[in-house]
Amino acid sequence: MIQSASTSTNLTSVRSIFKSLLYLAIGLIIGIEFTLVVFNQTDQCHRIITIQETPPKVNNEGSPISDPAVFQQNIWKNDANEQNSDDNIIEYLFNTTRVLCWIMTQPDYHQSRAIHIRNTWGRRCNTLLFMSSQSDETLPSIALPVEEGPDHLWNKTRLALKYIYDYHLNDADWFLKADDDTYVVMENLRMFLHGYSADDPLYFGCKVKRPEEPEFMSGGAGYVLSKHALVKFANEAYNNSELCDQLETDENMGLSKCLRNIDVIAGDSRDDELKERFIPLAPIHVIPDFKMEWYDSDIYHSANETVSCCSPYAVSFHYTDWREFYTLDYLLYSLRPFGVYSNVSWKLPDSWEINNEVI
Fold it and tell me: Each residue of 206-258: pLDDT tens digit?
């Protein structure tokens, strides 16, 4: 009886151990599966792809020279399946209206400004490039052979556009320039551009005017060139000082004169209610009312007293502090007021012909 009791006790102990091991195994399997799901979703949010191919070194005119590259072609690049959206229209636009974003920055602002674009709205570009005068692997940035400072911005812009033409022409349909203190809503940009053909010579932005230049785009609000416009710039204007003044110091005026001379159309980017999409000021400077006196006098289209500042489909805001990048990202992509957006229509805009008056 004693032996039988001992055997029974041993069997009970074995069953208990077996059950504990079984529960542990099940728990580990569940834990591993959950971890894999989390890591897969995290990896889909963003990733850095470093292209090892090294472009040739270029001189101040952007022409290749024999020495091996100063540029390492490092790109922050997304794939279409990385766009996690409840609506397939976001993925559709990501695939059909590809946008390369290039950010005008400088070494002093790599870590205080540019890196925060990489961490926020820049992740939603098809390709993201940082144009600087020094390389920085943490962004990464492209070192253009140019001096820094406001008097060199036009030359820096010329070199950046030529570089993109040489190495990234087929990576996108549209090419967006933004400053390192500009916030861009990429979904609204793609929605707007979807109605136009990248095969037409067009560019869009915030159109402003000055006595010395009746029409140009504000660089701070960002401007976007079609592929055809970029090709025309590189082939017709880049090395032609009569069409494209290489001694100009003002980036905005230099680009507008250059593109106008090669018949690139400066399009009207306002929405159906004549509200601006590209805003050359920060949200705090225009809502609830404008706080910059120059805006009313410089804006190309006369302000209508019945029209408020910004389109509900605004594309960009300038003079945005890096902290506001994260705030805007939260407000746009995380905050969900219950029931507010349940009846929103996602109809895409009609396509426009190049001779349409709206352009």
Answer: 887 666 666 768 878 899 999 999 999 999 999 999 999 888 888 888 899 99
Q: Yes or no: say if 215 and 207 are a contact pair by the CB < 8 Å rule.
A: yes
- Structure token pair of residue 251: 């980036």
Q: What share of the chain is helix, strand, coil (3-state, %, to 5)?
A: 40, 15, 45
Distance of alpha carbon 176 from alpha carbon 53, whole angstroms: 23
Domains of the chain: 86-334 (3.90.550)
Chain centre distance of CA 26: 44
Angle between helix 186-193 and helix 88-96 axes, rounded to 10 deg: 60
- Residue among 251, 87, 61 nearest 144 (CA): 61
Which tokens is 176 given? Answer: 């967006």
33-67 burial: b if 16+ Cβ within 10 Å, else e:
eeeeeeeeeeeeebeeeeeeeebeebeeebeeeee
Which 3 state secondary structure label does DSSP give 175?
A: strand
Task: Answer whether 180's CB lies under 8 Å from 319's CB.
Answer: no
Cα distance between residue 82 and residue 91, in whole Å: 9
